[in-house]
């Protein structure tokens, strides 16, 4: 099974926003705008946490939650 479609979708969605969008997988932090970072991280069925900070964070959180759900990835958007 390949996550390529999910990775491209997630990265493209993240790049629409100015906010910093960081995915936490266990003890690793990955910039979601980096396709390479996602390739090495989106493996297996981890529970991920998404940290979003910036001027359009609210919009970004909604969009990212949608794209993760669309690809059946278990992500919690952390509200800080």
UniProtKB/TrEMBL annotation:
InterPro entries, per database record: HPr-like, HPr-like_sf
- Pfam families associated with the record: PTS-HPr (PF00381)
Source species, domain of life: Bacteria
Q: Which residues form the HPr domain?
A: 10-69
Q: What's this protein's name?
A: Phosphocarrier protein
Organism field: Paenibacillus methanolicus
């Amino acid at each position: 099974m390949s996550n390529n479609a999910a990775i491209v979708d997630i990265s493209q969605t993240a790049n629409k926003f100015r906010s910093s969008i960081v995915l936490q997988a266990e003890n690793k932090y990955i910039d979601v705008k980096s396709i390479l970072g996602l390739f090495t991280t989106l493996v297996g069925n981890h529970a991920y946490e998404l940290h979003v900070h910036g001027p359009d964070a609210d919009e970004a959180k909604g969009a990212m939650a949608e794209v993760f759900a669309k690809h059946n990835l278990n992500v919690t958007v952390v509200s800080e």
